[in-house]
Design a protein that fits this description.
The structure holds 2 protein chains of 2 kinds. By secondary structure, chain A is α+β, with helices and mostly antiparallel strands. Chain A has helices at residues 46-53, 65-70, 95-107, 113-132, 139-147, 162-166, 170-180, 196-207, 255-268, 274-282, 314-330, 335-352, 356-369, 374-383, 387-397, and strands spanning 5-8, 14-19, 25-32, 74-79, 84-91, 186-192, 230-236, 242-248, 286-293, 301-308, 403-410. The chains are: A alpha+beta, B alpha+beta.
């Protein structure tokens, strides 16, 4: 059980406090309810570029990192298609420094031209390092627009193309801040060995006078139901052919989300999974295979991906894969298979909940989904799942007309 | 009106409570380290074997390591993994030059049943030819994928030149995968696993009889000998570029043989290393990322070996700015040798390092890792108390002296790929 307190400031900021008496450290986690899905299609990669700019100094403090390091702490952030999350970890006795820094950049940024110019370059190098200059690094740049036609999940957080980042101007940056970086669009979680009264006092002191800003309502285009099998082949200078089967699945707050999670585990989480045993160990078609879900807030994807063994064709793999999928769609799994999947989920959660930062981050994410206490309710949701539920989910999800297939063909294997 | 321009009053760290694990003898030279103070149901066990990549013929160690759970006469690899997963086991095997370490993470009530399964699987592994062939194919494919990465290309040449002429510097080539024999694997397994256990680490709220059982289970593998490691390594002072057609970035690896915790300059050098390249505000990051925008990241580190250690700077930069980056790295090193570090910058790094030390002593899992970082050098937790004092006392003059002593550009091995 992860305990927390919740209060709200007049400007709309939601605050969570998680007390842990065993640690000398404190975590300040700030989730902004903005991600790559909130970008316009001609200015992609912006939420992530903006995350970089948040470290370029705020209205009253020229440098974000140095004062935090002076306080013995460190900071980082990440951007997803759904959210942007910032965190500071520092010795508990210097908590106030983190609140001072975080509240000032919520109030306003420095918006210096130098920061924008440099971070544009840094992000372009990040684009190259992670997506363009890695074997198979461009897969998600290709797979997203194949699986999504309308919803902004069709582009990656890094952006559709480098030119969008090159063309970002200060006007865009300021407008983005004004629209999304308001107290009512943020969830703050403080974790550590403190008293609630102290946290209330400190949060009111540093965040209380930040103007509320405009309320921001999100209107995203809804992805229409997929009705046909989609396939795309790209050639790439890679050593082995690779495949990515992406199936549409439910949004985060739907029970089907949990079913899809277990279904993907059954198919390809571990070396005891169905696809690993059938396609790799028995039939020797693939060198590696796995299945997972994207975990996104709006309708997500269940992905089966892997690499072919030498001499194996995409067609051979395709036949064997669909045969295996037919089995999980036609017969409910045995109780012992389900038990095996559940104990792994439970063990993984115990280890995740160990970390103070993980707890603070997850409390924010569940609060965004509607209630931070969701973090304590997930276990019950998993516990209630029976084999026939997973069977139904498999039937719904694992259909050709719900699937987008990306094949990466090694240039050396092209005839 | 709230003053937002001044930093709130800071408190500094004076002392940290370091907790030592309980230590048990498994054999004459193998020991078990036990950290009991875990406030939840999680647990971990690490098994250290004298089976690092330096041992045996090239490539053999990593292969045997990859085949430990590949099946016995009674059980297929599939069945073994089924049984392990049914107990919720998360496990990984990491291999370095000097050690192979099996780590198992599980709920504490499952830890010993998992260890029993592991013991049975490892002791009775038959090195089934089909499993061997499958692993060879998998590894070959992975190797070909890695050879497409500039970071991998630079790293292997760097490693070869850094550990010039030593078993530490051996690097695998594609054809080496074809020269491995099953007989050789069986011999390696017998020498380095069945008689090669050097350390066991247990973290979790386990009862005494459970610890006793772990000692019984692992005791039969305990080594009787003491493994020897090379004392003197010398890097080749050379600059090499590996060309890769079509690359968008170049990877840079630059470094030299230095020392480990048992050297008197170690702690002070860590302060110098942090200033240069080991935190987000470091000089390398400030100059090459935050000022020039040449890279997504650049860092320096001091990596430790059993008898010595090495200093390393690593980055990936735009292909057209590779030489400009090297020039800036040299500029930052020369600056540390010529000028005194401003007191404000030094104070910041001191506070940062003390904060990091506090964090790395937070909780039983971090605490045991801290301790295991000392253990190879015969040091105890007093080392960290001494670190706090040394960090608090260090002066700009001492930093400059260390830079002059240890960071001479002519001494570096420099490799780029891209």
């Amino acid at each position: 059980m992860i305990h927390f307190e919740r209060f709200k400031l007049k400007n709309g900021l939601t605050v969570l406090f998680h007390k842990d008496v065993t640690t000398p450290m404190a975590v300040v986690n700030t989730l902004y309810n903005v991600g790559a899905r909130d970008e316009s299609e001609d200015k992609t990669g912006f939420a992530h570029l903006f995350e970089h700019l948040m470290f370029g100094g705020s209205v009253n403090i020229p440098d974000f990192d140095a004062p935090l390091q002076m306080a013995g702490g460190e900071s980082n952030a990440f951007t997803s298609n759904d959210i942007t999350n910032y965190y500071d970890v520092l010795p508990a006795h210097n908590l106030e420094t983190a609140l001072w820094l975080e509240s000032d950049r919520m109030l306003s940024l420095g918006f210096t031209p130098k920061s924008l110019e440099v971070q544009r370059n840094v992000v372009i190098e990040e684009f190259k390092q992670r997506y363009l200059n890695q074997p198979y690094g461009n897969v998600w740049l290709e797979l997203r627009p194949l699986a999504y036609r309308v919803h902004p999940y069709k582009w990656a957080t890094i952006g559709k193309e480098i030119s969008h980042i090159e063309e970002a101007v200060m006007e865009d940056v300021q407008a983005f801040f004004k629209k999304h970086y308001t107290p009512s669009n943020a969830i703050l979680c403080i974790a550590g060995n403190f008293e609630l009264e102290y946290i209330e006092e400190m949060v009111n002191k540093w965040y209380g006078d930040i103007p509320a800003g405009n309320l921001n309502s999100r209107m995203l285009p809804c992805e229409p139901e997929q009705t046909e099998f989609r396939e795309k082949i790209i050639e790439s200078n890679v050593p082995a052919d690779a495949f990515y089967y992406a199936f549409k699945m439910a949004e985060r707050k739907n029970q089907e989300y949990y079913l899809a999670d277990i279904l993907s585990d059954a198919l390809g989480r571990d070396k005891s999974s169905r696809l690993y045993n059938s396609l790799k160990k028995d039939q020797k078609l693939v060198s590696e295979i796995g299945a997972y879900i994207t975990g996104s807030i709006d309708n997500g994807l269940l992905v089966i991906s892997g690499k072919l063994n030498e001499g194996v064709s995409f067609n051979m793999l395709d036949r064997a894969l669909w045969e295996e999928l037919e089995i999980i769609k036609s017969k409910a799994m045995q109780e012992d298979e389900l038990a095996r999947l559940m104990i792994k989920i439970r063990t993984a959660k115990e280890f995740q909940d160990q970390g103070l930062l993980n707890r603070a981050m997850n409390l924010c994410i569940f609060e965004l989904l509607g209630d931070a206490n969701g973090i304590n309710e997930e276990h019950e949701i998993y516990h209630a799942i029976r084999p026939h539920h997973i069977l139904e989910a498999a039937k719904t999800i694992l259909q050709p007309r719900n699937c987008s297939l990306l094949k990466v063909k090694a240039t050396s294997n092209v005839e | 009106m709230l003053n937002r321009t001044n930093t709130p009053i800071l408190k500094s760290i004076e002392t940290i409570d370091f907790v030592k694990p309980k230590i048990y003898d498994i054999s004459k030279s193998a020991r078990l380290f036990f950290m009991k103070e875990v406030p939840n149901d999680t647990s971990r066990i690490d098994l250290y074997f004298d089976a690092g990549t330096m041992k045996g013929n090239l490539g053999i160690a990593a292969f045997v390591n990859g085949l430990l759970l590949s099946g016995t006469k009674e059980k297929s690899s599939m069945l073994i993994h089924n049984e392990l997963d049914a107990l919720g086991a998360f496990h990984e095997s990491t291999i370095s030059h000097e050690n192979a370490i099996i780590s198992i993470y599980a709920l504490k009530e499952n830890l010993i049943p998992i260890l029993r399964l592991y013991k049975n699987a490892i002791e009775n592994v038959i090195f089934d030819p089909q499993e061997v062939e499958e692993l060879i194919n998998d590894r070959k494919q992975k190797f070909r994928v890695n050879m497409e990465k500039v970071s991998f290309l630079a790293q292997r040449v760097f490693q070869n030149q850094l550990f010039d002429g030593s078993p530490y510097g051996r690097v695998l080539n594609a054809e080496d995968y074809d020269n491995l024999s099953i007989a050789e694997m069986k011999l390696f397994h017998k020498e380095h696993y069945m008689n090669g256990l050097t350390k066991v680490v247990v973290v979790g709220d386990m009862a005494q009889d459970e610890i006793d059982e772990i000692i019984d289970l692992t005791g039969t593998w305990a080594t009787e000998g003491i493994s020897e490691f090379e004392k003197v390594l010398v890097n080749r002072k050379e600059k090499t570029h590996v060309e890769k057609l079509g690359a968008l970035q170049s990877a840079i690896r630059l470094g030299k043989i230095l020392f480990n915790k048992s050297h008197e300059d170690f702690i002070d050098f860590q302060v110098l290393n942090t200033i240069l390249g080991d935190y987000f505000g470091s000089r390398l990051m400030s100059n090459i990322r935050e000022d020039k925008g040449y890279t997504y990241g650049i860092g320096s580190m001091l990596a430790e070996l059993h008898e010595t250690g090495y200093f390393l700077i690593a980055t990936e930069v735009g292909k057209d700015v590779k030489d400009a980056t090297l020039k800036e790295i040299q500029f930052e090193i020369e600056r540390l040798k010529a000028d005194l570090v401003p007191q404000e910058e030094l104070d910041l790094v001191k506070n940062y390092l003390l904060g990091q030390l506090l964090k790395s002593a937070d909780g039983p899992y971090s605490m045991i890792d801290l301790y295991m970082g000392l253990e190879p050098y015969g040091l105890d937790m007093e080392f960290y108390n001494e670190s706090i004092r040394k960090i608090q006392r260090i002066t700009p003059e001492r930093i400059r002296e260390l830079a002059q002593k240890h960071l001479n550009w002519e001494d570096f091995t420099i490799v780029s790929a891209g």
